[in-house]
Write a structure and sequence with these properties.
Blueprint (H helix, E strand, L loop, with lengths): L1 E6 L3 E6 L4 H12 L6 E5 L27 E9 L6 E6 L11
Parallel strand pairs: 1-4
Antiparallel strand pairs: 1-2, 3-4, 4-5
Length: about 100
């Protein structure tokens, strides 16, 4: 089972979802050169987050949360440095669709 992960300026790569979510997240960070300490997630074309970064999701298989052959946009979860609360989500694509921006 594979998904397409969009990033940058109309770039994408395939990812195998037949693994725990934590491995998928680590693979995506390594592929895009994102520090391991960053929180990342995926969203669909409508901007709906998949919430993969939540700790209770890490041992679930990614294939149970992400439909095969679908495309997702790579996002960084921005946190408040003072209390580590979630502040915003930044899609890592050039010229994101209007639906992603709110």
């Amino acid at each position: 089972m594979f998904i397409h992960i969009k990033h940058g300026g109309n770039e994408q790569f395939l990812a195998n979802t037949n693994c725990p979510v934590i491995l998928l997240l680590q693979y995506m960070k390594a592929k895009l050169g994102i520090p391991e300490s960053e929180l990342v997630d995926l969203c669909d074309d409508q901007g709906a987050l998949k919430m993969l970064f939540l700790s209770q999701q890490h041992q679930k298989y990614a294939s149970s949360l992400l439909p095969a052959r679908c495309s997702f946009i790579f996002c960084v979860v921005n946190r408040n440095p003072e209390d580590s609360g979630y502040v915003s989500i930044t899609p890592l694509v050039d010229n994101p669709e209007h639906a992603l921006l709110g």
